[in-house]
Write a structure and sequence with these properties.
186 residues; Leucine Aminopeptidase, subunit E, domain 1; seven-stranded mixed sheet; globular
Length: 186
């Protein structure tokens, strides 16, 4: 398998791909941050579902929406992260694995992952390794038929993008060997 990792410096509307992955916290009454922007573009569909109690941001909860041509990404996958105050890197890694699993089941090859701002209060050295392992495991569990996967990590802060890119680059040798994967950055 080949894995191409990107850190685009573009808005959510301009990110191409098949699936844009966003997150919602259980204790937020309305979509916030990146999800709020996409919800506005999609005419408030997520907010209405949250308001009606059909999507609450609970852990393991997901919502798949069509972008209806309003974004370059074809679909929007919203994953619940539980309570904001309880978010840990392990919860986020499970969510990334779940996103990769669901994308693999849909036979998606281009995934754009947002990075919740609260996740970056601290970034342990092994974060890159754990992220890559979670995504590759999720892809394999989803029985991805594709031999190529393209991941775009989205965050407007260049410092966060650089930090995460450094962590991911440092993890490549170990993960490449473990998963027999060719990992590159573009």
């Amino acid at each position: 398998m080949t894995l191409d990792i990107q850190f685009p410096d573009s808005s959510l509307e301009e990110v191409p791909g098949e699936v844009l992955v966003l997150f919602h916290f259980q204790d937020q009454l309305l979509p916030q941050s990146d999800l709020a922007r996409v919800d506005w573009i999609l005419n408030g569909v997520v907010g209405r579902l949250v308001y009606r109690g059909r999507f609450g941001g609970l852990p393991l909860q997901s919502l798949l929406l069509s972008s209806s041509g309003k974004l370059l990404a074809e679909k929007v996958l919203v994953l619940g992260l539980g309570r904001r105050s309880e978010l840990t890197w392990d919860h986020l890694l499970q969510a990334y694995s779940r996103a990769a699993f669901q994308a693999a089941k849909m036979k998606v090859r281009d995934i754009a992952l947002t990075i919740p701002e609260v996740a970056f209060q601290s970034v342990p050295d092994d974060t890159g390794e754990k992220i890559l392992r979670s995504i590759l495991q999720g892809t394999l569990q989803g029985e991805m038929a594709a031999s190529h996967l393209s991941l775009a990590f989205l965050n407007p802060d260049p410092g966060i993008r650089d930090l995460l890119q450094g962590r991911l680059r440092g993890a490549i040798p170990k993960i490449s060997e473990e998963f027999s994967a060719e990992i590159s950055f573009s």
